[in-house]
Amino acid sequence: MAFALSDSLRALLPRRFRDRRPRVAVVRLSGTIGAVSPIRPGLSIGGLAGSLDRAFGMPGAKAVALVINSPGGSPAQSHLIHRRIRALAAEKNLPVIAFVEDVAASGGYMIACAADEIVADPTSIVGSIGVVSAGFGFHGLLEKLGVERRVHTQGEAKSMLDPFRPEDPADVERLKRIQADVQDLFTGLVTARRPTLSTSENLFTGAVWTGRQALPLGLVDALGDIRTTLRARFGEMVDLRPVAEARGGFLSRLLRRGGAPGGIDGLAEGAIAAVAERAAFARFGL
Questions:
Q1: DSSP letter for each residue of 201-228
Q2: Residue 158 catalytic?
Q3: Which residue of 15, 83, 127, 249 has the fewest C-beta atoms within 10 A of its own C-beta?
Q4: Can you give the CATH number for the domain in which 232 is found?
Q5: CA neighbours within 13 Å on the CB side: how many for 270?
Q6: Residue 172, domain member (yes or no)
């Protein structure tokens, strides 16, 4: 009688409270990490904080799944996102499973390491545990154009790596020290989160591997996809509940604001940012 009464009362509740299926919150993390441009933002803690809070606060959630497709980007934003995921996982006592699609490289792999398990497709690209800085030098071009550039600073390192001046070995050495410090944090984080890493080869050279190659190295825990894996884990009736990203795409922001931010310049900036993002993926043959 009590069971029947319980079911009768349950029928009066909103549907989301009546559903007895095991539920997993799904957060999609796609794109480069950091501020690509004002009108084409990448993944950042500011843009993802709301989505992560909703995912870990979802009523009845048994786990949180991260679907990652990122070639990396800003080390700071990658680390901030990683830390927020770990803090919420500890606070809500929920397991986190990362699913790699095309790529989880560099900062994308750092975020994947926030999960308790990493599942990749056999053809996914993972790794790139390293730090890179790239730019251009234009000082020769200015000479040919007959242009004199004037820079006045307070602080001898203020114009470090100015692309319009010849490269200074002292600047390069300073940059190398910064990179080494970030790399030390990165390798320490991966080592702490992935205690089963293979010692058969150096995994911290910036190299990448396919999901199938990464499995015996301990960079991932299993091969598979989100639907198959979570059905095997929680049953055929598992409810995969997507959590929408708070940030909108360029088109949606354009429509909301009634025009392109910055007019033609804004459109040009968005196009350049799109090319830069495409180049980031192209580094991994994607």
A1: S---SS-EEEHHHHHHHTS-SEE--HHH
A2: yes
A3: 15
A4: 3.90.226.10
A5: 15
A6: no
Domain that holds residue 58: 20-137+197-282
Taking the C-alpha atoms of residue 226 and residue 132, their distance in angstroms, rounded to an integer, is: 31
239 within domain boundaries: yes
pTM of the model as a whole: 0.76
Indicate which residue of 44, 51, 106, 124 is catalytic. 106
Burial of 271: CB neighbours in 10 Å, binned 0-12, 13-18, 19+:
middle
Q: Is 106 a catalytic residue?
A: yes
- Residue 259, domain member (yes or no): yes
Q: How are beta strands 117-120 and 239-243 bridged, if at all?
A: unpaired
Residue 115 has φ and ψ, to the nearest 5°, of -80, 155
Q: Which of 158, 176, 198, 252 is catalytic?
A: 158
